[in-house]
Design a protein that fits this description.
Elements: E1 4-8, H1 12-24, E2 28-32, H2 35-44, E3 49-53, H3 62-71, E4 78-82, H4 87-95, E5 100-103, H5 108-151, H6 156-172, H7 176-186, H8 191-198, H9 202-216, H10 221-230
Parallel strand pairs: 1-2, 1-3, 3-4, 4-5
Helix pairs in contact: 7-9, 7-10, 8-9
Length: 233
């Protein structure tokens, strides 16, 4: 269970208070005071939950960051905090995938209770994801064994063509950006190189790689690199 939390709050006194309350019950807490700092920590770290003020300084709001989190497939539970509650704001937060919605002043017990619920939710979600990936890997291996058995009597060239056809079928399931990333992995580029090329974060590149691994039924990043090199044009 990931007990590391992130607080994104521009009120330094309030952020310090939240941090103290949560650390008293065993959480590790990082703090950011604006959209940019919170985004950087979130994209490059791993958190069990995020507490975020909806009104952050600058042009970008907490709601903007919440939407970006969901668009990049980060599944960390986000609890929105505001000092000016409104039904329309709560509805927008829920539509953008907020785990919960708290109004200031936030009581200590309420904060701790929501943190525990969010962290439990993340742990359950991660476990379901692991089980799903394990099942997919098992089914993929079975399918590969069946294909190997079917091809065992074929000549070398026929088998090679069947392998190529299977690889082409897998690659067809990838998006254009995923195919671009696969091509660059085949050239030996690192995730950092790829992030710089496409002007995206390393965390976003890793998310793309995770989706490619799932679609191609591969066993991790090393297997993805081997696949990319083996099937490069």
């Amino acid at each position: 269970m990931n007990k590391r939390l992130l607080i994104i709050e521009d009120d330094e006194l309030l952020a310090a208070t939240f941090q103290r309350f949560l650390e008293m019950v065993g959480y590790q807490v990082d703090v950011a005071g604006d959209y940019r700092g919170g985004r950087e920590l979130l994209l490059n770290g791993s958190y069990g939950a995020v507490f975020m003020d909806i009104n952050l300084p600058g042009r970008r709001t907490g709601m903007d960051l919440l939407q970006e989190i969901r668009e990049t497939d980060i599944d960390t539970p986000v609890v929105i905090i505001t000092g000016a509650p409104a039904v329309v704001t709560a509805a927008a937060a829920v539509r953008n995938g907020a785990f919960d919605y708290l109004c200031k002043p936030v009581e200590k017990d309420q904060l701790i209770e929501i943190a525990a619920a969010a962290v439990r939710h993340k742990a359950l979600s991660d476990e379901k994801g692991r089980q799903h990936r394990n099942l997919e890997a098992a089914f993929s291996r079975i399918r590969e064994l069946v294909v190997d058995a079917d091809l065992s009597d074929q000549s070398g060239p026929a088998r090679n063509q069947a392998d190529k056809d299977l690889a082409a079928k897998h690659k067809a399931a990838l998006s254009e950006r995923e195919r671009q990333i696969l091509s660059r992995l085949a050239q030996g580029e690192t995730t950092s190189d790829i992030a710089g090329c496409f002007a995206i974060s390393i965390r976003t590149v890793e998310s793309y790689c995770a989706r490619i691994i799932e679609k191609l039924h591969l066993d991790g990043m090393k297997a993805l690199r081997r696949y990319a090199i083996r099937n490069k044009k």
